[in-house]
Records
---
Amino acid sequence: MTRLPAGSRADAAVGAFRTCPRTAPEKTMPQGPTMIAWKNEPGRTARCPACGARDGQTHSLDVTSPLTGDTLSLYACAGCGSRFYDPFVPFESDRFYTDRHIQYYVEAGAGIGSILQPLVSLRLAPGSRRFLDVGCGFGFSLDFATHVLCWSAVGVEPSRMGRAGKAALGVAISNDYLENIPALQAARFDVISTSEVLEHVGDPAAFVDMLASRMTPGGVLVLGTPNAELVAPETDAATLMGILSPHFHTVLFSERALRRLLDRFGFAHVHVAKTGHQLMAHASHRPFRLEPLPRRDPLVILKYLMDAAGRLAGRPAVMIGFLYRALTGATHLGLYPMGARIAPSLRRAVAAAYGLDLDDHAAVAARLDAVTDFEDLGGRLPYCLFGIYYGLGMAALHVENDPARAIGCFDMGFAACRRFLDISLENFAEAAHLLWIMRLKGGMARIAAGDAAGARRAFGEIVAAAHDPSPYRGIAPPPHVLEQARDMA
């Protein structure tokens, strides 16, 4: 998911469908779960952008924007189950596309796997393909489609993010709104992708109509958008704030509403899957083949990430972003030897870009302590620092057989998770996900090192946080981590 400041992938598509932006006042921001106040007040009148229903809506929650301090009201639609803001108060996204935010997106924020997997799982007949990504952001999908799938790929992204990606990756990105680009008016495409855009659009039907009009007769639309079902108290605060994204997301679709929207435009063949925080739809007027991701598909993406890092060695932030995702991808797949082979290149890239030795934990800790805000963070440390330490720790534990080194990595990763979440809860959902996994793995490494007392302290901290997560921005240990900690304590 693209985290706040959102809007890049949306701006490319919205054009005439968006409303006027506003300017933010200076206000003190609330912290943690206090940003969200659950209401559940039925019987309200408000128009749902997904289906047009007005009556019997439920005032679901109020959320305070971490950018403006304003409080916005979110409603649950009685007609289709979607969620939407009323009134929706938009924000001018390009004001927040500083160099640091682009760096964040490239190093950590872009969900490259979630962007690429729907393309990999689509099994098309052999032959050249024309591919359009509407709201392509930095252009990762275009780079992958060009170098791996051998498609003819173009993207639409008018923001600074698109200009930066065009320069860095050398991909074809038009820096304007789709309806303003003459060369794309008559063009037709075999695959059109739009990821994390629909939720920003004030008129979703007009937007999908525009995309459908640019498809070949057998073309496939690939559409990803946050899942409204995850707007629930049990969703962790970091993920929930990213989904809500006040001032940027206007409507969050339910699966039922998304299917209705695609049916409305005559897509006879529709597949909708729930993947992570997203609904991922493939839709076409003709039959298409979509396969569950076999093991080889993540390896295709891993190879792309490593090859891209080699191609872009002269661009430190881009190289770090690719290597970080390759390291964590290999780690999540249990390919620890591959992660260990990636680690030295990533260490060198961080040293070259930041003048920082990742093994010098005292120096890293000093920089963490000195960070003042989100912008300052990117000048001192990689935005993906916490995930780097997780991958390094797993390599030390499973390949190098060095539990002492693993302990240092997991402890630094845990400290980085906490500091990053203090700085920006909504931008670091991955840090929230890894926080207690990092502590659990640190306890296991202490067992391997013969430090039973240290292991008990680590597991005890996890158990205590389940009762009171407030010191950790409200991030409680997930059930599977808590169960393991209790068993091992």
---
Amino acid sequence: MKLKKILMLGFVVGMMSCSCSTSVDYCPVTASDNDLVFPALAQSWDEGIPLGNATVGALVWEKDTALRFSLDRTDLWDLRPVDSLSGDNYRFAWVKEHIRMRDYRPVQKKFDEPYNRMPAPSKIPGAALEFPLTELGKPVQVRLYLDNALCEAIWENGTRMQTFVHATKPVGWFVFKNLTTELEPLLVTPQYKKTGNSSEASPVSGQDLQRLGDEQGSVVRKGNECVYHQKGYGDFSYDVVVKWKRQGKTLYGTWSVTSSLCGEQAKEETEAAMLRGLEKDYAVHLDYWKNYWAQSSVALPDSILQKQYYNEMYKFGSAARENSYPISLQAVWTADNGKLPPWKGDYHHDLNTQLSYWPAYAGNHLSEGLGYLNTLWNQRDTYKRYTRQYFETEGMNVPGVCTLTGEPMGGWIQYAMSQTAGAWLAQHFYLHWKYSADKEFLKERAYPFLKDVAIYMEQNSIVDSKGVRRLEFSSSPEIYDNSLQAWFKDMTNYDLSLMHFLFDAGAEMANELGIRAEAEHWSKLRSQLPDFDLYSDGSLTFAKGFPYNASHRHFSHALAIHPLGIIDWSDGEKAQHIIRATLKRMSDYGPDYWTGYTYSWFANMQARAFNGEEAAKALRTFAECFCLKNTFHANGDQSGSGKSKFTYRPFTLEGNFAFASGIHEMLLQSHTGVIRVFPAIPSTWKNASFNNLRAMGGFLVSAALKDGKIVRLEVYSEKGGHLAVFSPFEHKVMEYETQPGSRIDLVVK
């Protein structure tokens, strides 16, 4: 359980003179050992305190002696089309012709280079609020209260500021108490127009915002309200509004960001918030976060991992909602540095989005994970059109790199237009079904989505003269980058593992639904696939003749081990040898070219091999070396300790959320059909516990470790059905037939 103490701070009552009267209260907060506490404000946007609700977000930091809130919204996008993704040559068949001719330069010019050269399509920033610090000075403490999703700053003279992004409304609040000087917010706009030439920067570091060519929007102030309207590409526009009121020594106000893609209006949202009042909005906000945190909890003896875990789950709760767009590379925290975000802030489906949603399942946050699945479901027509145009097949694949609306963006097409991206995304529909045990979701969403991908995959693959089903050309993210060499003649283990999963899962789902003919069909296709390629030491290769022989950030070749679980420790000695050899080879060649998410992923794999020491070690390295002060994953090694030769700091989120999943894998595993608690914890962990982590089958599991022994194991059955759990007391698998709402308690004998 988290250590908490209640701090009731400065409960001061005032009156607002809107159309109705309401109190202005300083928000009560709950302190936790997992809170982020700093002696000063961050000096860069990517180290700011993050606040968000998956639709709007803010970063709290200091810029040029001003307290700054960087404001963002998930659907702020420049959605101009990629001109090169059209025409007669916009076909995978044309690409394959050039691969056969070994004349790959035309392909790079058409598909790859526009992504680097053109600034859009891209996520774009919103605006910022600034409060001058010239009179206040610098705060002496800045704190993110995780339980309350609220940031507080305290000054030496007694001034206090609190700010939060409403958990369910597209608004943010701020309140200053005990002010001894004049203070009001300044609405600062992104600079779409400025003097001087626009520099062309790498999409990794972010291109200059003015390269979009948009006209500079205007800010209009009327009394205590500022309205910023910004026109974007085509008929797109967005609005940022801030409204405030000074009452004695208290300044309070609210802001909103809305886009033309939604029905909301920022002006109306801020007016409605002011009428509701701070007290009512904060109460609703607290209810949401109280319910969120009640879904599950963990207690770890390692304070670094404990704190990092809760900060990851806080960010997940700030970036994921059932009715939101999915988590993009930076979610609702777009760069506030005059540039477009790293990698355009887009949706990368060769790893990034997938890893970002790993904690939704065992973490018991299925509803938050539905934002991802709902968007994938709603964009099926776009994906099917892309599949017909580019792959010239029926069914459906998903672009490996795409816009907010699901349109392909190009890039290194081995991955940006991957042949198997849709299969990896389909796994998330599969996982939601397995963890929820929701048969209606299986029938209405999971199987139809996966079936469409399987139809495409059947038509996109070929059967050779030996009866083996394969891809004519295969790839493995991101081996050999975007060169001709990145196309393999033999199947890569990456593509192969996803095809194995796809047809296996299709057969399992169809059988569950009683569709026997389709189940048999998918099973037949699965039987036509070749075996995974192994090196002489038994380790998984990238492809035949291409062993893992150099440090690489993307464990694409080992997807069959995790997250797909096709090669699992429970399968016996042969599988265990493959897993041991594969992980050893990764370790032997070292982390020179690993990024932060690599360490997080490695921890998940080590947990699947029941190696708690190595799993915890990798997670600790991630937390200590690859995260900024606010816990954002910065890709490169920020510690100077040589954990990677990558030392850059573009911020992305997938490493953070894969970290949380690594903790779950150490505490609870159920992917084999048998629930195991504490399967991969270090031998030094003598005391640990968790409550309501979720296992496959719709089971909620709680367990406790005390003095090195498991003393509690409880399983709650949501849907009823067959339960298999390894009892640490009987030292064997116990099986039960459960009823919905029933509870199984295994106790020490």
---
Amino acid sequence: MGTFIPAYFQGVAEHFADVNSAALLNGLMAGTQAMLANTNPTQTLRQVFINHFPLAQNGHEAQIWARFDDFYRAGFEKLQALTTPRPEARTVLEWAGAAGYRIILATNALFPEVAIRARLRWAGLEDLPFEFITHIENSHFAKPQPEYFAEILARAGLRSHEALMVGNDWNDDILPAAQLGLATWWVAKPGREPLSGATPVGIGALGDFLRWAQTSLSEFEPPAPPPSRIPYRLAGNLAYVSGELVQLTEAQWKARPNAQEWSLTEVICHLRDVDAEVNLPRLNLVLNNENPFISGAVTDPWAIERNYQAQNGPEALQAWAGFRQQLMVELRAQPITAWQRTARHALFGPSTLAEIMGWALDHDDLHVEQVRNLLRQMASASLSPPRTF
């Protein structure tokens, strides 16, 4: 990337030749740094970039984005000469697809989809069966934020122990994935010692990974993920759900597949109230008291008792985001020892903060899957267009 990035900035400057080059490059740097630092699950990286790119302010967003799109479809192509395909990457991906593994392209989501697909074409990988590709329009986080990988898991309906990250950058790929509890393979020179903060299952070239995967991956059992993954996973779930629901109509919010199933409005109202009235109070109770007693909570009847279906879905989503971010901030601020603070649960007996928040995450995952299923049913019934990535 040592020659690619300077050439990229030069290409953008040439495409925006009518704009002051210093202002343009300063804006690009400000927008990029903001994307790299973003931990807000309710803003896509495109929104973050635009908010920090002065030339797109004052009603010029559509015009500026159209000009960037023109650049990526023309001037960006000149950068292909600075890249080198890696045939072994195709070999690995073809094997993984043939073996039945789901393949997700977890490239840093700082570019629009058109640019990432161009890079895939340059690498000779554009025809491979990626389940989805992360890019600036569909992602709320960038590497090296662990939330970046958490949003991928939420979108794919996976838990931390169900995915393996193969990457060549320790700080962008291996470390944040490990913080989330993913198993990792570090693509580096064989024999290189791992750096601090993670223990990859292997270190070596792509060919080394392929040999290991062909003989050992199907039997591999990853270690239990750390409890410190929980706030990142909760952030990823919110990011995925908010991204999927932001453009829905009122009819889509209220649609029920049948009389026994909840609508999206009811699901989001439920998640909002559980965070506000169960998860946050339990967290504060355990943090501020020694071995407190925690009562059970029966929350499903709230859907009828509180008439969730009559409430406003987008407003419920906004309120849930507020409570969820409070929960994430408090959990992230805790030292590692806090996860072992004890409590007594009315139904499950002696417990710890790690276990209690693990229940919260399990509950969250169930309802995120419910959201995913509702969206699929809408798509199949032509209530909303199928989503592509």
